[in-house]
UniProtKB/TrEMBL annotation, chain A:
Keywords: Transferase. It holds the Pfam family Carboxyl_trans. One of its GO terms (molecular function) is carboxy-lyase activity. It comes from Sphingomonas aurantiaca. Gene3D superfamilies: 2-enoyl-CoA Hydratase, Chain A, domain 1. Residues 1-239 form the CoA carboxyltransferase N-terminal domain. GO terms for biological process: carbohydrate metabolic process; fatty acid biosynthetic process; malonyl-CoA biosynthetic process. This is Malonate decarboxylase beta subunit.
UniProtKB/TrEMBL annotation, chain B:
Pfam families: MdcE. InterPro entries: ClpP/crotonase-like_dom_sf, Malonate_gamma. This is Malonate decarboxylase gamma subunit. It comes from the Bacteria. It comes from Sphingomonas aurantiaca. GO terms for biological process: carbohydrate metabolic process.
TrEMBL record, chain C:
This is Malonate decarboxylase acyl carrier protein. Its main location: cytoplasm. The keyword Cytoplasm applies. The keyword Transmembrane does not apply. It is found in: Cytoplasm. Covalently binds the prosthetic group of malonate decarboxylase. Keywords: Cytoplasm, Phosphoprotein. HAMAP family: Malonate_deCO2ase_dsu.
Length: 300, 237, 105
């Protein structure tokens, strides 16, 4: 590793893995040399990618063995197709069998529409595999701060993780801004209003309402440090966990359900100057958030 | 079929399922025991307000020790597409509902989704597709995204998409296509007793997530089972 | 998709011991280049998969220029093209050859 700060947002999937795991510890499974490309993109005269937009393998983080996956947001928007999804499913099933923690670097627009049915089922399979691994005590840590954000079914998968680490760029949402606007009109959501997108779906808002656990700067080393800490947290997932999540999600609706904008919610949290949040540097924001935010307290 | 007709055919011994807006909750006598019923009906979108009530019901069942199956009736739209739902973290609510169903299953409750109408996208994942076994009635019409929206996103003319849909089940909406990729285990016969068909499902033990294997056998998803297996083998090698 | 094959004399043998190198991604105007070791040390085999049909002559020129200037002998190269311009192709090919010569990271 060098001392030069590396942007997580700008990095590709392989660079993110290289920044996360210990040097020379990474071994890829079903790598590009296997040429396991999408069997479906050719129908649309679209070029395939040798890894189908996801890198999966094993490595260590500060000496702790982990399984790791990273989506490539530049290829097909990091979307889940048949092969892409199956690689993550296989990794998670191995995690359960081995009792080994998993780190997933999300960067996805959701289901890949050219193979939508295969991608949709893949997401359901992945969520099931995460829950089954977590019930056996496996940690599944999600990292979100890429170009494509974490949308659609990716957002639902993220919601199954034990810990979520986000940067400001890490947007988490089900329906993307463009799709809401297309279906419900610009009055419902103006997707070109980037400030609205960031404060509704971005990492700062998700951190403040408890949708994400750890806020980091757009810095690969910060993601690695936060992942290291997350892997040291207790791995608990049972009926009590979901009862606590039920309670916190009910409380969120009760507290904020009538509010129409993130700044109203931030104000209700006790933040005096919510309009200053979007421009606030990461460390200042993290300090403020620690004081005012709704923490999920591992109830996820 | 309407939810009332479905429930009557499923539970001739009676049930106390009641509607709450577009949601259903209740229990029914079935054979020597009971079946818990939840439902998302009326072709309605599933937003945070619906998801949190469904998960509350599922978690309550999960915490009971009766080990009775849960039947989840589904006829929904997609997830609710609104600024408010996304602002408040819809992804968490839908994931929480799915996790609740998976927890109930892990605690001994069979979870059976019965898709009798529509469902789409994130709502489909959080409800029907989070059940251990998913069956459908003829006429059900699941979709990830409608072809018109798909045409906009892929920038392909809709008639081109329709033509391609005839050659592959992998992307276009519809029950047959979801069956072909292994997402739906069985399509029931609406002309015979649904109770008998439910009994058949409950009498067949569930052995893990077999959707990728079904997709390979049926030809709609040729690679997933093989790839997932190859990765899992490599990881444990 | 159009698939193009080239198998041409490459006088300069590739160095290093790395088995494989991958550079680039498949995106609009970009491409991925997978470089592996082939059979004959004085040949370079290149397979290109591209959605842009009818550019064989252009690829021919880029490939000829590449093996003339870079140590590409003994390499087997596979390309997935997202509609990259020739200068981008040349850049990725050069990066791929450089990476396979580097020690394992």
């Amino acid at each position: 590793m060098s001392n030069i700060r590396q942007s997580w947002y700008e990095a590709g999937a392989r660079e993110r893995i290289a920044a996360l795991v210990d040097p020379r510890s990474f071994a890829e499974f079903v790598g590009p040399e296997c040429r396991e490309t999408s069997p479906h993109l050719g129908i649309f005269n679209l070029p395939a990618q040798f890894d189908d937009g996801i890198v999966v393998g094993s490595g260590s983080i500060n000496g702790t063995p982990v399984l790791v996956a990273a989506q490539e947001g530049r290829f097909m928007g990091g979307a889940f197709g048949e092969v892409h999804g199956a690689k993550l499913t296989g990794l998670l099933r191995a995690a359960k069998a081995l009792g080994r923690d998993v780190v997933i670097a999300f960067d996805t627009g959701g289901v890949r529409l050219q193979e939508a049915n295969a991608g949709e089922i893949a997401i359901a399979e992945i969520m099931r595999a995460i829950v089954e691994a977590r019930l056996d005590g496996v940690r599944v840590v999600g990292l979100i701060g890429g170009r494509a954000g974490c949308y659609g079914g990716g957002g639902l998968i993220a919601g199954c993780c034990s810990t979520l680490i986000v940067s400001e760029q890490g947007r988490i949402s089900v329906t993307g801004p463009e799709v809401i606007e297309t279906n419900k009109g610009v009055e419902e959501f103006d997707s070109r209003d980037r400030a609205l997108v960031w404060r509704t779906m971005g990492g700062k808002h998700r951190t403040l309402i408890g949708g994400a656990d750890v806020f980091v700067d757009d810095d690969a080393a910060a993601f690695r440090a936060a992942a290291t800490a997350a892997l040291a947290r207790p791995a608990k997932f049972d009926a009590a966990t979901l009862a606590a999540e039920q309670a916190r999600l009910e409380r969120r609706i009760a507290r904020f359900g009538d509010m129409s904008d993130a700044t109203d919610i931030w104000h209700a949290l006790g933040i005096n100057d919510p309009k200053a949040i979007p421009d606030m540097p990461a460390d200042a924001f993290a300090t403020l958030a620690a004081q005012y935010r709704e923490s999920a307290d591992d109830a996820r | 079929m309407t939810p009332a007709e479905i429930l009557d055919s499923l539970f001739p011994a009676g049930h106390d399922v009641t509607t709450d807006g577009d949601l259903l909750f209740g229990r029914a006598r079935f054979g020597d025991g009971i079946v818990h019923v939840v439902g998302a009906t009326g072709r309605a979108p599933i937003g945070i307000d619906q998801a949190i009530r469904l998960s509350a019901a599922v978690l309550q069942i999960a915490s009971s020790d009766d080990a009775a199956p849960i039947l989840f009736l589904v006829d929904s739209a997609s997830q609710r597409m609104s600024r408010r739902d996304e602002l408040l973290g819809l992804s968490e609510y839908l994931a929480h509902l799915a996790k609740s169903l998976l927890l109930a299953e892990a605690r001994g409750h069979r979870t059976i989704g019965l898709l009798y109408g529509g469902s789409a996208a994130g709502a489909f994942i959080a409800t029907a597709l989070a059940c251990g076994t998913l069956v459908a009635l003829p006429g059900a019409h699941p979709e990830v995204m409608d072809l018109a929206s798909m045409a906009r996103v892929t920038k392909l003319p809709i008639d081109v998409l329709e033509a391609k849909a005839k050659t592959t089940p992998v992307f276009a909406p519809g029950l047959d296509n979801l069956v072909s990729v292994g997402g739906i285990a069985t399509v029931w016969d609406a002309g015979t007793s649904l109770a008998d068909q439910l009994q058949t499902v409950l009498a067949t033990p569930r052995a893990g997530d077999d959707r990728a294997t079904l997709g390979a056998e049926r030809g709609g998803r040729p690679a997933a089972a093989r790839i997932a297996g190859a990765v899992a083998t490599a990881a444990q090698g | 998709m159009e698939i193009l094959h080239f198998d041409i004399a490459a006088p300069m043998p590739a160095g290093g011991t790395r088995k494989m190198a991958l550079v680039g991604v498949v995106a609009s105007g970009n491409l991925e280049v997978l470089v592996e070791r082939g059979d004959a040390a004085d040949r370079c085999a290149i397979e290109i998969s591209t959605a842009a049909h009818g550019f064989r002559d252009l690829w021919d020129a880029v490939v000829a220029d590449f093996v003339g200037r870079r140590a590409a002998g003994g390499l087997r190269i596979a390309i997935n093209d997202g509609g990259a311009r020739p200068d981008t192709v040349s850049l990725r090919l050069a990066q791929g050859v450089r990476l396979i010569e580097e020690p394992e990271a």
